[in-house]
Design brief:
four-stranded mixed sheet, 11 strands, 16 helices, alpha/beta, single chain, 382 residues, binds magnesium ion
């Protein structure tokens, strides 16, 4: 029996994780649940799975949560509470959205737990701080990102590796020029063709920033140089990524676009769950297409490579600026094409910093957000 903590249990990944654990009750025991603010949903989940402990990120909601959970369930509150529950199980699934997930990532690894990481931003922004924590005895990092889950599976094919090929659906705006993208709306950006996900990552998919963040994530997870990480657009989202070996042989992982597969993989590895999520019907699937990404229409991908190659705190700046820009787009302050402008102009202000401690990462994040907000303000008034 594997005990599981789900931090960010009320979001898209969290609710799908509960479907996976419910499908395999003899394998998984959910002992901890945590959410930022969705107190009613969290309480309903607690009544359904009876965890030992729950945590709510917004401490003002703790009393309300306590009233709604079954007797005997411990209630923790605040960001420290969310980080604490990540240490209370064999596996901690970090499904927090954005940079706010960093304490959860560090708590799980420093406690020597397996971290099933759906919060790529914490690894991207704080790689130099997260990497040493991976060396804690017992600590393991398994990606809950379909592409990196695919790469993890393909790497079982051995070595030496020549190239990593990360696939991208291309998002809802694939094939459009920069000019054609000037007037797209929030609803347009949230209409993803193949994946059902939360709003932040869905907007990131529309700009290809998600793919850029995944390039940095692949570098941090597997240690590959940026020169051997390629991106290819694959609209069907069936091939989730590929690894090419030095003899030219390429191994790919295929399944339907269903996040429950990478969630189950990360929770159960090195076993595999017995419930098929993402099973392909080969009489329905008739073609797989591939094309190069359009870096002019989608500059965020190039900006991510640039930040990754710069290293230091540049990925933290990229990710922070993007979070600010996406929030401003979602609330109607700036247009879609301004997202990449905000990221580019914020990165222009980056001065090399070596983020060797959490405080340095937090300060880099703060500086980048401040500059990004200034750029947003300028764009909004323009
Ligand atoms: Mg992904």
């Amino acid at each position: 029996m594997t005990t599981v903590a789900i931090v960010g249990s009320t979001g898209s990944i969290g609710t799908q994780a509960l479907e996976v654990t419910a499908a395999e009750p003899d394998r998984f025991d959910v002992v901890a649940l945590g959410a930022h603010r969705s107190v009613d949903t969290l309480a309903a989940q607690a009544r359904a799975v009876h965890p030992e402990v729950v945590a709510i990120g917004d401490a003002d909601l703790a009393a309300e949560l306590k009233e709604q959970v079954p007797a005997g369930v411990e209630v923790l509150a605040g960001p420290d509470g969310l980080a604490e529950i990540a240490t209370r199980a064999d596996v901690a699934l970090n499904a927090v959205v954005g940079f706010a997930g960093l304490p959860v990532t560090l708590a799980a690894l420093n406690a020597g737990k397996r971290l099933a990481l759906a919060n790529k931003e914490s690894l991207i922004a704080a790689g130099p701080v997260v990497q040493p924590a991976r060396a804690t005895p017992g600590a393991e990092l398994l990606p809950v990102d379909s592409e990196h889950c695919a790469i993890h599976q393909c790497l079982a094919g051995g070595a030496p590796v020549a190239r990593i090929v990360i696939t991208a659906s291309g998002g809802p705006f694939r094939g459009r020029s920069r000019d054609e993208l000037a007037a797209v709306t929030v609803d347009d950006a949230l209409a993803h063709p193949t994946w059902s996900m939360g709003p932040k990552i869905t907007v990131d998919s529309s700009t290809l920033m998600n793919k850029g963040l995944e390039v940095i994530e692949a570098h941090e997870l597997f240690g590959f140089d940026y020169d051997v990480i390629d991106v290819v657009v694959h609209p069907q989202s069936i091939v989730h990524s590929m690894v090419e070996f030095t003899d030219g042989a390429t191994i790919a992982q295929l399944s339907l676009p269903d996040m429950r597969l990478p969630i189950g993989y990360a929770l159960a590895w090195p076993d595999r769950i017995g419930t098929p999520f993402g099973r392909i019907d080969w009489s329905e699937l008739t073609s797989l297409e591939f094309e190069p990404p359009d870096l002019d229409a989608f500059p965020c991908l190039g900006l991510a490579y640039e930040a990754g190659r710069l290293g230091g705190a540049a990925p933290a700046w990229l990710s922070a600026a993007n979070e600010v820009a996406v929030a401003a787009f979602l609330d109607g302050t700036i247009g879609w094409t301004a997202i990449s402008d905000v990221v580019a102009e914020t990165l222009d202000g980056y001065v090399g910093t070596e983020p060797d401690a959490v405080d340095v990462v937090l300060e880099a994040d703060r500086q980048a957000r401040e500059r990004a907000r200034q750029v947003v303000e300028r764009k909004a008034n323009a």
